[in-house]
From TrEMBL:
Condenses 4-methyl-5-(beta-hydroxyethyl)thiazole monophosphate (THZ-P) and 2-methyl-4-amino-5-hydroxymethyl pyrimidine pyrophosphate (HMP-PP) to form thiamine monophosphate (TMP). Mg(2+) binds at D71, D90. GO terms for cellular component: cytoplasm. This is Thiamine-phosphate synthase. GO terms for biological process: thiamine biosynthetic process; thiamine diphosphate biosynthetic process. Signal peptide: none annotated. It comes from the Bacteria.
């Protein structure tokens, strides 16, 4: 049984993190309570993803936070990451699972009730559901679903879920009320003057919401 905590899922953005870098942002955020860190860099080739991923793996070692690589299965394998996250337009879930083996966490983005209901729990470990709101960090995103849509997708999805898309500390209670296991954030931590404090603020609200 894979152990992972979706509650505060940080998606790194190289542009927003440029001030202190993705590795330092991740270290600080995990110190503040982030439970998962996803390396997402649409402009990096596999070699650069591996370089950054190995640095992230080193700073996250011993923290209990999982390192997930977005899209790049070769990088995820080379890094020895805890997991891989794919979208609907990337490598298919079955093909991804065959590449990464049975032990690595596999996440899949879903944007509709049909896609959420179709997730195969024998292959996929969690679903990223959204976008809840429009977000500038992913300009090509699908139509926002709002919290009502989030609740509907969570209800039909057979695996644990994390909400994504324009989410901040003020949205924590609504995310958990919709039944999601956590929220994925980008700008709420990346690019802030103090990522550790930003993560701690969100983690504190999560603890209260889960009571």
């Amino acid at each position: 049984m894979k152990q992972f905590d979706l509650s505060l899922y940080l998606v790194l953005d190289p542009d927003l993190c440029a001030g202190i870098g993705m590795v330092e942002t991740a270290r600080a955020a995990v110190a503040g309570g982030a439970t998962i860190v996803q390396l997402r860099d649409k402009h990096a080739d596999t070699a650069r993803m591996i370089e950054t991923g190995l640095a992230l793996k080193a700073v996250l070692s011993g923290t209990g936070a999982a390192l997930i690589v977005n899209d790049d299965v070769d990088a995820a394998i080379a890094i020895g990451a805890d997991g891989l996250h794919i979208g609907q337009d990337d490598l298919g879930a079955l093909a991804a699972r065959e590449r990464i083996g049975p032990d690595m966490i596999l996440g899949l983005s879903v944007e509709t009730e049909a896609l959420a209901a179709a997730v195969n729990p024998d292959i996929v470990d969690y679903a990223g559901i959204g976008p809840v709101f429009a977000t500038a960090t992913k300009p090509d995103h699908k139509q926002p679903i709002g919290f009502d849509g989030l609740a509907r997708l969570v209800d039909v999805c057979p695996v644990p879920s994390v909400a994504i898309g324009g989410l901040k500390a003020t949205h924590v209670r609504d995310v958990f009320a919709a039944g999601a296991g956590g929220l994925a954030v980008v700008s709420a931590i990346c690019g802030t003057s103090d990522p550790e404090a930003a993560a701690r603020d969100i983690a504190d609200i999560i603890r209260k919401a889960r009571r």
